[in-house]
Amino acid sequence: MTATQPSSTAAPEAPRGAPGARPGPIEAVPVRHPGRWIAAVLVLVIGIGSLSSILQNPNLDLPTVGEYLFKPLTIDGVLITLWLTAASMVMGVFGGIVVAVMRLSPNPVLSIAAMLFIWVFRGTPLLLQLIFWGFIGAFIPKIVIGIPFTSVEFWSFTTSDLIPATVAALLALGLNEMAYAAEIVRAGIQSVDHGQTEAAHSLGMSPAKTLRRVVLPQAMRVIIPPMGNETITMLKSTSLVAIVAGDDLMSNIREAYTQNYKIIPLLIVAAIWYLALTSILSIPQMWLERRYGRGFTGARPTIGSRVSTFTQSIALPSRESRAARASKKESAS
Amino acid sequence: MTTTIPQSAPAASVADRPMVEAVDVHKRFGSLEVLKGITMSVERGQVVCLLGPSGSGKSTFLRCINHLEQVDAGMIRVAGETVGYRERNGRLHELREKEVAAQRRKVGMVFQRFNLFPHMTALENVIEAPVQVAGRSRSQAKEQARALLAQVGLAEKADTYPAQLSGGQQQRVAIARALAMEPEVMLFDEPTSALDPELVGDVLDVMRGLAESGMTMIVVTHEIGFAREVGDVAVFMDGGVVVEAGDPAQVLVDPREERTRAFLSKVL
């Protein structure tokens, strides 16, 4: 036994000699992509050209941009914009869930009411709704709390006192968002397999608990990406508030440039802020997507991975691999 | 086990009554009559296997037992209670959804497509109903869930999400999840039909163990071998009626009815 051991350990190696050996990595000439090179150069030339012409334009007035970028006027506007965005999204999402559940309800009154709500608020322009709520006092001068169809009044308010400009803006943005959010939530709820509801019911869960614990958490996966878009759209839509009154970023910037006529530099200030805010907003979206993606596999491509795939695909063969191929040719001959 | 209406003794206590009792159950979907008068009774601790061609109504009947489908005519009793209704002063009153939910706690169900909650780990799936429905403490529920997962041979998979489990493992978690509510009867709706052949055995082993522990089970299955070995009663259904029922050794080996014979010759 001991004598044969060395030969027996060598034995499995022997038949795996030249013909059966594991093949080395493939060395092939990669496909060339000259079109990609030409396109990349073209885009770079156009991009650098237009950027330098913009930067050399005397009307750009970078000192003014710098001056207004962190002025209290601008910062106050940014804060109001953020507040309006957050408040109307909260109103939109929670209201939207209620409207979506109503829309899916077997009760025809609830379902039709939800349908009508969505029909009106999704079917008219946001700008129109903003102006409408801004001038609601002209439509309904007094709000009365009493018994309907009688003259009994417990309390009455003048509408314009009850609904100042910011509340009007919030109502317009929030109600409009509710209609869109309702449709997104409905699509999310309907995307969850009916077997999930049956399983929850068979475990003795009530319909409300089934919705809250089983259906909505799974619907969130479908709901969050479009909701992220909605939030970014909302952040920009708040600029429409400038039409009624509002103290948001766009309103303040507009007020400033109507006085000093430095329109372009001030618009750049606003653009920088809107871009910064929308960029920051994509971070919580990513976090939420990961949170509600638990239990579901499938990775998303990152920008980094896309750049590296591109550089790999346009890379010329490296010097080492060319040298390796040359030396192989030599050894073969 | 009898498949005729049991002539229930006038003063029978709940313990004496059959676990599941179906009397002349009818069910239609639109113009299609799926169940045309099913009558059967399942005693406590019995394992009943429902067999038959697809479309014969066996799954529909199973779903009627825990009120996932509403019966059109006839009635079903589970542990003496009418499913979906309450009898008061000789009249039937429909139960509220909450009351139906409470009734379902007595009945565990295992689905063909598992229907595990994909956003929860195996352990979270098992503790969900005990915590949310039965109001048990999380720690108590977790302890019980670990024991159940061990019982189905998946103790080490407690923190795994369903998507990372094989079909057979998912189905065994689903069985553990149903058992966590301590049901009095377990319904299995083709539990192995969606599984790769080599995974069927593990699930059947768990079900066999469950049967041996005395659980009342109603199993819709195409596994003739399982029905013969584990089943106390085999019921052959076709076209919405019970064609033949009795000892599996007789029904599945030497059936009296021609339709049963034809079906078995195709399946075996």
TrEMBL record, chain A:
Pfam families: BPD_transp_1. Residues 10-25 have a biased composition (Low complexity). The chain crosses the membrane at residues 37-55, 75-101, 108-124, 130-150, 263-284. InterPro entries: AA_ABC_transptr_permease_3TM (IPR010065), ArtM/GltK/GlnP/TcyL/YhdX-like (IPR043429), MetI-like (IPR000515), MetI-like_sf (IPR035906). It is a multi-pass membrane protein. Belongs to the binding-protein-dependent transport system permease family. This is Amino acid ABC transporter permease. It comes from Agromyces tropicus.
TrEMBL record, chain B:
Pfam families: ABC_tran. Residues 20-264 form the ABC transporter domain. Keywords: ATP-binding, Cell membrane, Membrane, Nucleotide-binding, Transport. One of its GO terms (molecular function) is ATP binding. The keyword Lyase does not apply. InterPro entries: AAA+_ATPase (IPR003593), ABC_ATPase_HisP-typ (IPR030679), ABC_transporter-like_ATP-bd (IPR003439), ABC_transporter-like_CS (IPR017871), MetN_ABC_transporter-like (IPR050086), P-loop_NTPase (IPR027417). It is found in: Cell membrane. PANTHER family: AMINO ACID IMPORT ATP-BINDING PROTEIN (PTHR43166), L-CYSTINE IMPORT ATP-BINDING PROTEIN TCYN (PTHR43166:SF35). This is Amino acid ABC transporter ATP-binding protein. It comes from Agromyces tropicus.
